[in-house]
Design goal:
Elements: E1 3-7, H1 15-24, E2 32-36, E3 39-43, H2 47-57, E4 62-63, E5 66-67, E6 69-72, H3 76-99
Antiparallel strand pairs: 1-3, 1-6, 2-3, 4-5
Amino acid sequence: MNKLYVGNLSPSVTVEDLKELFDEKKLPVAEQVFLKTGYAFVDFPDQNSAIKAIETLSGKVKLHGKVIEVDYSVPKKLSELGRTEAAKGSLFQKKAQDATRGQSGSPPLLTYLLPCKAI
């Protein structure tokens, strides 16, 4: 995955500011930068470059006075799916616990299941 989310950006940040930052940190210049107020999506040429950008920038660099956050971009549908599945998982866990009330001994394995986010 080569597309990264860059967040906590000052409203005054420009595409040129981001590209200059990447250049200063010896990161390959991003192929595409999609900038909105407060965040951007950046395409890197390969996965190694994307990983290096996360490790080099996230939580470590200030741009226009704000420490930026850099992480993998998650498509909206997948992030919504993750929230939906997490809610279902919580409901499933509660039903499993309710079904076992009154039994002696250790709780069943089902009570330890945690929802996981789709990647």
